[in-house]
Amino acid sequence: MLRSVQGIVLRSMDYGEGNKIISLFTPELGKVGVMARGAKKVKSRHAAVTQLFTYGDFVFFKTRGQMGSLNSAEIIEAHHALREDLHMSAHASYLAEMTDRMLGDEEGSTYLFEQLKAGLMAIEEGKDMQIVVHLYEMKMFELAGYLPVTDACVSCGETSDITHFSPSMGGTLCSRCRYKDTVAIRVGEGALKLLKLFPRMDMRRLGAVQVKDETKAQLKICMRTYMDIHIGVKWKSRDFIEQMEKYNI
Q1: How far apart are the C-alpha atoms of 176 and 76, rounded to whole Å?
Q2: Which end of the chain is more exposed for a tag (fewer CB within 10 A), N or C?
Q3: Whole-angstrom Cα distance, residue 219 to residue 227?
Q4: Can you give the residue ranges of the DNA replication/recombination mediator RecO N-terminal domain (predicted)?
Q5: β-strands 68-77, 171-174: how paired?
Q6: pLDDT tens digits, residue range 122-166?
Q7: Which of 230, 241, 216, 218 has its CA nearest to residue 163?
């Protein structure tokens, strides 16, 4: 069946002498694998559209259970800046990698597609990359069924005097329940406000937020530790981000 869809390239890998296989995320079909024959060749009409992060119109032939075969494609947004800037590329790669690895074949939704599209655009527009990443991580937690409790104490349900975040217990803790996790992460008012906001926030409405360094540091340890405990995937792109942070690149 010939399919015509909009999509974002999540992953692009060489196949054989001149071909590429792309992992394409679409609103209608979810995540699909598509073979782009001849795309490795410099003069190929598919060379540009199969690059990572490219958002475009794709026409491909696909039968159920089989990889698609690309017929034609037109670029809507090339996202050159995301590939040319090291920091942008690393953070955009993390969004794409999460989407690619956490979704099964033909799995996804129009909402998640719009969140990814908006996230890539937000990074390219110079919005806070760490906040964009954390917001998208929260969408991934929801997709996986591991959305943390952030609007009340995960232990007793108390909504006031929230002081800590417990990745292992699955959410925030009040001062009275803090003793139940001795390694829970202390969070200030700013970090707690954002942890509450992330599950409800639409990436398309993200503005040019200004977040204190202390708040961002708390958010980083909360979200990364939660991801490691509940998702348990070793992310290549996040490892690269952490190496840049370590060596202050």
Answers
A1: 53
A2: N
A3: 12
A4: 4-78
A5: unpaired
A6: 999 999 999 999 999 999 999 999 999 999 999 999 999 999 999
A7: 218
